[in-house]
TrEMBL record:
GO cellular component terms attached to this protein's record: DNA-directed RNA polymerase complex
Record-given protein name: DNA-directed RNA polymerase specialized sigma subunit, sigma24 homolog
Organism of derivation: Solibacillus silvestris (strain StLB046) (Bacillus silvestris)
Family assignment from sequence similarity: Belongs to the sigma-70 factor family. ECF subfamily.
PANTHER family given in the database record: RNA POLYMERASE ECF-TYPE SIGMA FACTO, RNA POLYMERASE SIGMA FACTOR SIGV
UniProt keywords, alphabetically: DNA-directed RNA polymerase, Sigma factor, Transcription, Transcription regulation
Domain (RNA polymerase sigma-70 region): residue spans on this chain: 8-75
Residues covered by the RNA polymerase sigma factor 70 region 4 type domain: 114-165
One GO process term, biological-process aspect: DNA-templated transcription initiation
Pfam families, per the entry: Sigma70_r2, Sigma70_r4_2
Example of a GO MF term: sigma factor activity
Keyword Plastid: no
Keyword match Plastid: no
Length: 181
């Protein structure tokens, strides 16, 4: 393993483990998932040097590996284990379609648009803090470095931004009804 991968492993190993643990809620499965993630990282070793945000890249690999693993387990347990020896229909017809329905896509799009409109009402410092934390998935330390403030200040801004956004969302009766329904 090259020096860059060793550095990345040393820096992000605990983060990846805790993310895996959060996703799987099981120590053994988290360790297995983490191992799969690091195998993929080593496999795509040549891509590592081209990555701008290593933490976001590792998070994406972890999330995708978890989703793939989950889907594989669901398919196996739901459709393969309880199958009769002979089927009258092709096996692929039994695999569920994980795509969103049109209604779910419209609802997701509308909610995203509403949240973005309400976020625009926040002060820019709060907008940036929320964006960095939830969209770019930066750590508190990374945000504090980017914004040139202490971690405590980032935590305070994040807390105030979420509280203010909630207040703005719930003050709009149409949005409050949609959210609470």
């Amino acid at each position: 393993m090259n020096e860059l991968l060793t550095t990345i492993y040393d820096e992000y190993n605990r983060y990846i483990y805790h993310l895996c643990l959060k996703l799987t809620r099981n120590q053994n499965e988290a360790e297995d998932l983490m191992q799969e993630v690091w195998v993929k990282v080593v496999r795509y070793e040549e891509s590592v040097s081209k990555v701008d945000h290593v933490k976001a890249w590792l998070t994406t690999i972890t999330m995708n590996t978890f989703r793939d693993r989950y889907r594989k387990n669901v398919r196996r347990s739901k459709y393969m284990m309880n199958q009769p020896e002979q089927l009258d229909v092709p096996i692929l017809d039994l695999v569920p379609n994980n795509d969103f329905t049109t209604e779910e896509l419209v609802e997701k799009t509308e909610i995203t648009k509403i949240v973005q409109e309400k976020m625009a009402q926040l002060d820019s410092i709060y907008q940036k803090t929320l964006w960095y934390f939830y969209v770019d998935q930066f750590s508190l330390a990374e945000i504090s470095e980017l914004m040139k403030v202490s971690i405590g200040t980032v935590k305070s801004r994040l807390f105030r931004a979420k509280a203010r956004l909630k207040e703005i969302l719930l003050s709009d009766n149409g949005v409050a009804e949609a959210v609470l329904a």
